[in-house]
Amino acid sequence: MMTKKEDQLSPVNSLGQAREGQNLTHDAVFGEISEDGPNYRNVGWIVTAALMMKTQIGLGVLSIPIAFESLGIVPGVIILVIIAVITTWSDYMIGVFKLNHPEVYGVGDVGKMIFGQPGMWFLEIVFVLYWVFVSGSGMLGVSISLNAISSHATCTAAYVAVSAVIGLILSSIQTLAKIGFMAWGGLFCILTAILIVTIAVGVEDRPASAPQNGSWVPDYKIIASPSFTDAITSVSSIVFAFSGTPSFFSIASEMRDPRMYTRSLMICQSVVTAVYITIGCVVYYFCGSYVASPALSSAGPLVKKISYAFALPGLIVTLTIVTHVPAKYIFLRVMRGSPHLTSSSIRHWAAWLGCTSGVTIVAYVIASGIPVFDGLVSLIGALLGTLMCFQPMACMWLYDNWSQGKTAKSPRWVAMVIWSGLVLLIGTFLMVAGTYGSAVSIAQSYSKSSGSGAWSCADNAL
Questions:
Q1: Residues β-bridged to residue 27
Q2: Distance (Å, rounded) from C-alpha 433 to C-alpha 429?
Q3: Confidence (pLDDT) at 168
Q4: What keywords sit in the KW lines (predicted)?
Q5: Separation in Å, CA 51 to CA 56, 111, 173, 284, 376
Q6: By C-alpha distance, which of 184, 19, 35, 16 is closest to 101?
Q7: Considering the domain boundaries, does residue 445 fall inside one?
């Protein structure tokens, strides 16, 4: 941290903010920033809220109704609220930790501070794997949308490849500030698509997959009786819906004023939780056991085409962000400390495009190899999402506050230690049990005659 005198003399303060009337010349993460290169510290708090919401409201919301179908409405809402509370605290801890340690860019830096070099490598690998898997699910979501709009005009494998190319081009935009304006449009599109389906299932006689002859009443369940595998898979899907958390480090690092982080976060989590509860309850109430995954397929053929047409830009923006985040992380890790990090040199562009291309290729292989949307979503949420949203943040609080207990164990300190330990336990349980359940679910989907195989041409929008 700078002394008061150093802070007064520096072009930027300890948060990396430019002083009034001065250009931003140095950042604790990005180093020297000049007008000749990209400005990585140019995201306002309103755009920050949009970026946060877009990392959350994208693929995950489409699996909420099917999770409620497995759990029942009441348990589904209770579990969703519990996960919302825990992840909101985790998200809040990112902002606090970033202010306390401005040099932190991602969870790998946290791992190094708390656990040393092995912790850094482990969390960095998990972080990159997580976002690459999410990028793969993003490609799968775009391919489903293209299939639905075109009535499966061509092979699904081709649509996945097209999705990969689109994701590569757009994710190569250098800064989140520029992508942030796309996030607003993406949010509008995905929310409009979900609203269309929600209204449609409410006014139509029955969902698309329900028996079309005779009387029909929605067979929703207030409290369901799922198997352990189905229950934990559904919980993992809900975790995935809130697992934009690890990207918040990157978003906070590109904010003009990180002190506004909490304001953006509260807007994000309030909107996201309200949308999830509303969509999950309404769509499942009217569709019952015939709710589809993704949820946009729940209404009739015409509504399905219209909703996916609106959703497509939003899904593309989601794919852009979730491909950009791991590529930026790898790029920064490789180029940190180099003048090429913030310049527009050939080496800068070669490294940057190499990172976006590498992430895209691996994500494409994942999307093509596991073409089961709900299974892939729950696997990501369980295996990697919990480890990125629960355990590290509990360790962050303990790292910054454990020493306080040596002088005075206040009731608040004791309560927070218990809370952090509880978050650690919940995260570990969900990670182990959820991974098992998701693996079983994916294996079962492959054993079905209608299951879609790797690099399949089968319509994945059915």
A1: 31
A2: 6
A3: 96
A4: Membrane, Transmembrane, Transmembrane helix
A5: 9, 24, 15, 28, 23
A6: 16
A7: no
* Neighbour tally for 263: CB within 10 Å: 15
Give the range of the structural domain holding residue 219, as residue numbers without chain letter: 42-103+118-372
CATH number for the domain including 325?
1.10.4160.10
Residue with token string 């759990």: 71
Give the pTM. Answer: 0.85
User: Would you tell me how many other CB atoms lie within 10 Å of the CB of residue 154?
Assistant: 12
Judging by DSSP bridges, how do beta strands 31-32 and 26-27 pair with one another?
Answer: antiparallel
CA atoms of 79 and 85, how far apart (whole Å):
10
Instruction: Classify residue 112: in a domain, yes or no.
Output: no
Tokens of 37: 């290169």
CB of 297 closer than 8 Å to CB of 462: yes
Which among 370, 360, 376, 322 is positioned nearest to 131, based on CA atoms? 322
Q: How far apart are CA 183 and CA 272, in angstroms?
A: 14
Candidates 159, 237, 188, 189; CA nearest to 455 is: 159
> Does residue 365 fall inside a structural domain?
yes
Angle between helices 391-401 and 107-150 (to 10 degrees): 160
Distance CA 455, CA 99 (A): 45
For 162, the token pair is 């097209």
**Per-residue model confidence as pLDDT tens digits over 187-216:** 899 889 988 988 888 787 677 777 777 777
Which of 300, 277, 43 has the alpha carbon at shortest distance from 180? Answer: 43
**Two tokens, residue 58:** 């994208």
**Which amino acid, 69?**
E
| DSSP class per residue in 289-337 | GG--SSGGGSS-HHHHHHHHHHHHHHHHHHHHHHHHHHHHHHHHHHHTT
Residues 220, 318: contact at Cβ < 8 Å?
no
**Residue 349 domain flag:** yes
Q: How confident is the model at residue 34 (pLDDT cuts 50, 70, 90)?
A: low
| Six-digit token string for 142 | 């775009």
Question: pLDDT above 90 covers what percent of the chain?
Answer: 43
**Exposure string over 81-98, b if 16+ CB within 10 A, otherwise e:** eebbebbbbbbbbbbebb
Contact 20, 33 (CB under 8 A): no
3-state secondary structure of 98: helix
Which residue has 């190499």 as its token pair?
A: 354
State the total domains in the chain. 1
